[in-house]
Amino acid sequence: MFTLLITFHVIVGIFLIAVVLLQTGKAGNIADVFGGGGSMAAFGARGAATLLSRVTSVAAILFMITSLGLSVVKSSERSLMERAVPTKQAPVQPKK
Fold it and tell me: What is the pTM of this model?
């Protein structure tokens, strides 16, 4: 379960990075000045921004959910430090 969740978390993280990098900046570029901004886009000037914004939102929400899930799953396990510390045992009585 933990391995599956961490694999999905990494995939969502990589996808989120890719989607954010695909988005255009709000400042615009030289093509926007001459009216060419988005004319060659597959979804139109506004459609791509809306689609990428929604995909980014979904990916961010999935990333947060998997982060919370990983923290819940991991907090229910004992940590390495707890496993390394021996439990208290009754003192050994010296032989007479």
Answer: 0.60
